[in-house]
Amino acid sequence: MKLAVLGAGAVGRAVVDLAAEYGHTVTAVADSGSAVVDGDGVDSEAVLARKRDEGVVGDGDPAHALSADYDVLVEATPTTLGDAEPGFGHVRGALETDRHVVLANKGPVAERYDDVRALADESAGSLRFEATVGGAIPVLATVEGVGPSRVNAARGVLNGTANFVLSRMAAEGLEYEHVLAEAQDLGVAEADPTFDVDGTDAALKCAILANVLHDGGYSLADVDVDGITSIPPSALDLAAEEGRTVRLVGEVTADGVRVGPRLVPEHGTLAVTGTTNIVQLETEHAGRLNLSGQGAGGAATASAVLADVDRLP
Amino acid sequence: MSEPANRTHTLRLELVDEPGELLRALAPIAENGGNLLSIFHERGSLTPRGRIPVEVDLECPPKQFEDVVGALRDAGVTVIAADAEHYGEAVTVLLVGDLVASDLSGVLASVEECGAASVVDFTLTDEPGVDDEASARLRLAVEAGGAGDALATVRDVAAEKDLHVVEPLVGDA
Ligand SMILES: NC(=O)c1ccc[n+]([C@@H]2O[C@H](COP(=O)([O-])OP(=O)(O)OC[C@H]3O[C@@H](n4cnc5c(N)ncnc54)[C@H](OP(=O)(O)O)[C@@H]3O)[C@@H](O)[C@H]2O)c1
Fold first, then answer.
1. Domain check: are A64 and A207 in the same one?
2. Could you report the predicted ipTM of this complex, rounded to two decimals?
3. pLDDT, tens digit, for every residue of A164-196?
4. Final residue of a domain: which of B82, B110, B139?
5. DSSP string, chain A
6. Residue A162 sits in which domain range?
7. Which of A167, B39, B102, B141 could form a disulfide bond with A273, CB atoms 3.0-4.6 angstroms apart?
8. Is the residue at B140 inside a domain?
9. Cβ of B92 and A288 within 8 Å?
10. B23 is a domain residue
11. What is the pLDDT of residue B49?
């Protein structure tokens, strides 16, 4: 398939890098200020080198990427709240011209799911967004396999940064700020980790899961969100005395969607450590399914994007 | 149909240390067809909240036992545990914030007042170096199936007092 990759950050670049290995051709790449388009396939190595050295992917206008010749739009621009732009506009552009869309960007499916769904229903192209929930972990594919109506609830640890911080705090008895600074030094946390630690990122993923399980109707505003910024080491000590620990857990149930710090058994399934993510699905006939792995990272997320491309009709 | 056979049940109550409290607690039992077998009144030992634990054995038809427990709760008596099958869940929650300023004992009292839970234990820890912050761990006894209500109460009380709650995840393996 021919891919147009919008966004040349960690995810977009990894998609460009790995596409050929999956048997696909990248015909367009854009970042915020430039684009490269070639109907026969761009020179991936050259594009990545230019991005690294000059900060641009080519000499074209970013808008040219959308009008290029491609079968699948890979949307990997920044996740934004509210109108979910520029991602939403890209999705619309591709679906209105009957092209497929694969999202890494959470915004369109977390904030405007029903709009996106309506566009997809009108389009000959289809929409997939495995990478938006749990990075490399095939959460949505599993839900699809089980059947969304046979999944009664989903819960999990969906933010690696918050999990790294909580597990380090508990293990070392260190303050929140200290561990967060360490996470930033290690490149685990972004320069601005607000959405990770205040629960927004996990809440977006939960809204997406709720949309899939309940066939739409959810956005961030429907999620009850609390973060981990006010958890002191003493709270983790009190939890540990009872064989428990605290994790930032997202829950999607018939009662609603919520994200917040929760007490879990210290050695329980959900108490994953470091940046690992985990999702538990409560199924109607198959009991509980636990899926864990890398929830973020360029190559890991790109692997979910490319798996989606392979699932397209 | 023959009368259902009587069964022996055990109730664990928590009473305020005041004259007449014990009688007040026993009345609903008799009124609802319970036959008192024994009362163990541990006068010396107090619960963390300064209350007196009392254990009551009684017999009654199985179906009536729920009425007895309900009547006790209606009468404002704290039922910590009612038989093995009624023991329900012990639920642990953490509270974080300015617990001193927010009047922790008032928080505990509000939680108990709602009737869904009783506080069986709590532990308070200061956050070293941070004056206005502390963490507390509360262990609540709730009726089977009552954890949701009890936690909702804790959430409401905490929100009122500007405290953070870390709730248990119900159903995690
Ligand atoms: N990183 C992960 O592990 C991960 C996992 C799951 C999902 N996601 C989601 O995937 C998306 C990409 O993540 P990332 O980590 O690669 O983000 P990133 O490093 O911030 O990269 C975003 C890219 O989008 C480009 N961009 C911004 N506005 C654009 C526009 N109007 N048109 C075209 N390109 C535009 C940026 O251009 P410049 O380079 O010019 O700034 C940048 O190259 C985000 O929505 C993120 O939430 C990421």
1. no
2. 0.85
3. 999 999 999 999 999 999 999 999 998 899 999
4. B82
5. -EEEEE--SHHHHHHHHHTGGGT-EEEEEE-SS-EEE-TT---HHHHHHHHHHHS-S-SB-THHHHTSS-SEEEE-SPP-STT-TTHHHHHHHHHHTT-EEEE--SHHHHHSHHHHHHHHHHSSS-EE-GGGTTTTS-HHHHHHHH-GGGEEEEEEE--HHHHHHHHHHHHH---HHHHHHHHHHTTSS-SS-HHHHSSHHHHHHHHHHHHHHHTS---GGGEEE--STT--HHHHHHHHHTTEEEEEEEEEETTEEEEEEEEEETTSTT---TTEEEEEEEETTTEEEEEEEE---HHHHHHHHHHHHHH--
6. 140-294
7. A167
8. yes
9. no
10. yes
11. 63
